[in-house]
Design brief:
The structure is a homodimer of 164-residue chains. Helix content of chain A is 34%, strand content 32%. Chain A has 164 residues and is of the alpha+beta class. Chain A has one domain (7-160): Gcn5-related N-acetyltransferase (GNAT) (Aminopeptidase), CATH 3.40.630.30. The first copy, chain A, has a 5-stranded mixed sheet, sandwiched between helices. The interface between A and B is large, with 75 and 75 residues. Strand 7 of chain A pairs antiparallel with strand 5 (119-125) of chain B, so a sheet runs across the interface.
């Protein structure tokens, strides 16, 4: 398969932090999670583009305009080994249906294979049927017996305080 | 809260790799996932205890005997920032009900707070009601609108091959 010639994927740099945060805000709107975005440009710059990057970012451009982005990082399956976790995958509204999402996913898959990861993992919101259909066509599996649990704030502090 | 005095939590070292893999096999049996354990001692040694560790391991001993373990690593919530992911938490059968799991979780929570993570995340199998009840009592939240997706093997290769 060939990608549309107007698409180009590149690694984001610290110069892209403002763009990246704006894309994230768009993504969060789409995910109905706008209120969950608390990250600042400073934190993104430090965590993504400092001396010890916590994630890697790909930006897809269409004729030089930002059309979407992907964020991924190391994950570990203790029973198996290294997995690549795709945290965000977003295509801007005006560029949907033009192969941007597929191009970004393919690039992330290529990174995974090149660097010896055994699988790619990500999450999808259960109401996002169009995305689920795409993932099914790719041959992905859904681990529907797993519930995601999260502890933060006072509950986290309370648990930590139990350390003698 | 004080932990039972016979419990001690320590960081695992490369000397613990055989023990760790054995504990993992027990854990996998308990999770009904024995067939999913493909990891070797060599891979565990490289990924957990080499120059670039992909995860950290805590071992809980009760009167000097291994009673359980926890594995955790960096995760990133792009909308928020650094999260600590608790990949495994296991208490050996003969030591259940003695505070081992709570002690391990508290230690992981303490690591999270000490090192500036904003939340702790983990997974639980949907049939594991005793664990779910414990997590609810801790004040954890369940992100039940998220489905976990995974791509590997030929499907991953096929996607990667789409990169032009």
């Amino acid at each position: 398969m060939e990608f549309p010639p107007q698409l180009r994927i590149r690694n984001a740099t610290v110069e892209d932090v403002r763009l990246l945060r704006n894309l994230m805000l768009e993504f969060a709107e789409y995910q109905r999670m706008r209120d969950f975005v608390t990250i600042s440009e400073e934190t993104l710059a430090r965590d993504g583009f400092g001396p010890n990057p916590r994630f890697r970012t790909l930006i897809c451009e269409s004729d030089g305009k930002p059309a979407g982005y992907a964020i991924h990082f190391d994950f570990y399956s203790s029973f198996e080994g290294q997995v690549l976790f795709l945290e965000d995958l977003y295509v801007c509204e005006e560029f949907r249906g033009q192969g941007v999402g597929k191009a970004l996913m393919a690039e992330v898959a290529a990174v995974a294979l090149r660097e010896g990861y055994l699988a790619l993992r990500w999450e999808v919101l259960d109401w996002n049927q169009p995305a689920i259909a795409v993932y099914q066509r790719l041959g992905a599996t859904f681990q529907d017996d797993r519930r995601q649990v999260r502890l933060e704030g006072d509950a986290l502090k309370q648990l930590a305080a139990a350390v003698g």
